[in-house]
From TrEMBL:
Keywords: Hydrolase, Membrane, Protease, Transmembrane, Transmembrane helix. The lineage of its organism: Eukaryota, Fungi, Dikarya, Ascomycota, Pezizomycotina. Its EC number is 3.4.21.105. This is rhomboid protease. It is found in: Membrane. The keyword Protease applies. Pfam families: Rhomboid (PF01694). GO terms for molecular function: serine-type endopeptidase activity. Residues 59-197 form the Peptidase S54 rhomboid domain. One of its GO terms (biological process) is proteolysis.
């Protein structure tokens, strides 16, 4: 009989222990906020992105809505989808860059665009929450990288551009999963495309400044699992890449292993999910 791969908790534990620092922190915050909403249900209302309640006094919603979730399954599916993508991003760009982007522009930009579309174009007030907006942001960024090496994939006689894969997933998710925000997912993917094409790379401080800050604070030496921005000097995780027969090129990362979807929330006081 053919053998099937078995669930191995040791492999999962090993994977979790290898996660870089910022990925660990963000995933821990997501879980902690879900736990906090059990006794303090008002946290969902306070942190969710409700367009009509966004003003200069409630700008925290633009940063917090990806971290808050409707329930356990909403949270766990988003974590499963986000972890490998976020780990890959941090391994490529460093812990400091990842922290700056995911606590700032990668929340405020898609959240701000979503709010403007809902209030002034769609004339609606659909409340959203969940990390799936980050999932599709990172999927769009990865799809653009893959597109450069493999511009098309084939389904029967049809050739489909690789960069459209996240858009297809967004459409399928919106059709198959109830109470999912199509607009929210598209806003996240849009920012991912802009990042991958270097259009918004100006959001990251100059590498020289980041290197100086890392050296000044000795972040690589003080913080376990920290990924240095200066990969040319330290290599990822502070280890210089070993030379190879092809000329000393460093190791390349595999493609992300998971592409599950996340979730947003509904209208009024009822929640709607950004994914399964």
């Amino acid at each position: 009989m053919p053998s099937f791969p078995q669930f191995n908790p040791l492999r999962i534990r090993s994977y979790v222990l290898r996660l870089p620092l910022c990925t660990r922190v963000l995933l821990t915050i997501i879980v902690a906020l879900w736990v906090a909403t059990i006794p303090f249900a008002w946290l969902r209302e306070w942190a969710s992105l409700e367009p009509d309640k966004v003003n200069f006094g409630t700008m925290h919603r633009l940063n917090l809505f990806p971290l808050i979730h409707l329930g356990f399954f909403h949270m766990i599916f988003n974590i499963i989808a986000l972890a490998p993508l976020l780990e890959r991003f941090e391994s490529e760009f460093g812990t400091l860059v990842t922290l700056l982007l995911f606590t700032g522009p990668f929340g405020t930009l898609p959240g701000g665009i979503y709010t403007l579309l809902e209030k002034f174009i769609l004339r609606s007030n659909t409340t959203v929450m969940g990390a799936s907006i980050w999932v599709f942001l990172l999927l769009a960024s990865e799809a653009m990288k893959t597109h450069k090496a493999n511009p098309h994939f084939s389904i029967g006689p049809y050739k489909i551009p690789t960069w459209t894969t996240p858009l297809i997933l967004i459409l399928l998710t919106s059709i198959l999963v109830p109470n999912v925000s199509l607009i929210g997912h598209l806003c996240g993917a849009g920012i991912g495309y802009l990042w991958a094409t270097n259009t918004i790379k100006f959001l990251v401080p100059p590498e020289k400044l980041l290197r100086w800050l890392e050296a000044k604070l000795n972040l690589l030496g003080r913080l376990p699992h920290y990924v240095s921005v200066d990969q040319k000097t330290y290599g990822r995780y502070g280890v210089l890449p070993s030379s190879t027969a092809s000329g000393g090129a460093g190791p390349t990362s595999p493609l992300p292993r998971s592409a599950a979807t996340g979730t947003l929330t509904g209208t009024g006081k009822e929640g709607v999910r950004l994914g399964p």
